[in-house]
Specification:
single chain, 290 residues, alpha/beta, Rossmann fold, two-stranded parallel sheet, 10 helices, 9 strands, globular, EC 2.7.2.3, transferase, Phosphoglycerate_kinase, ATP binding, Phosphoglycerate kinase
Length: 290
Amino acid sequence: ARAFFGKSTVSKKRVSAKAPRAAFKVEAAKKSVGDLKKADLEGKTVFVRCDLNVPLNADLEITDDTRIRAAIPTLEYLVENGAKVLVTSHLGRPKDGPEDKFRLTPVGARLSELLSCSVTKVDDCVGDVVKDAVKAMENGSVCLLENVRFYKDEEKNGKDFAKQLAEHADLYVNDAFGTAHRAHASTAGVTEFLSPSVAGFLLQKELDYLDGAVSNPERPFCAIVGGSKVSSKIGVIETLLEKTDKIILGGGMIFTFYKALGKSVGSSLVEDDKIDLAKELMAKAEAKGV
């Protein structure tokens, strides 16, 4: 099934069929979506991984659209340059396949309001429904695919699943800074099948900022690290211990550190198997004067 979030019901002129994918070549040196011009993008199907994991209330209404707004510059650029844009994201933490409360339907409606074009949403992220949607797309159009985490192979970075995600696209844009550190099928696996694979404007901006902040920081240099899990931040914290003067931890992961310090955490989220690691990280910080 497909949903259509439109600004207008007036149809546009159909465009000619696209050239065979084998004819599509772009210099490997291109690292950012801004390096791709109209000649590279027009008529091409672009698979864009965004971070549209927005909070929803009990009525499945978006309560904060910041992440959707952050994705707009990249999507607008692709639309303006005549690409056919396949947008994908995760939403929440579904455990056993599709759940209505984690569907991206509210996101599709908001995207259509913010973009200069209408957005079509399909009820899957792989398979014939995506194939049919791509066939129906015109240059400068956007299709939102369903939550990639409805498939367990997304977080396992399953090769077959990554291939299915990529099979209807010509190139890949990663604009999901919040999930870029995870080796998932939609963030890492698809790059094996799509070339070029480049950063979106949001991801590039964050990487440029981090590079400048970490490579040549003003002192004292303080880093704030948040998140729900210590396990996904180990590398970040260890790297920052070598570069910062202070580290402030926030988010759900602090309860693992609190428990490591012997503090009461009640029923808060704790990674019990990471308590020893939390102790090690704090010991390293103390030894380095951080």
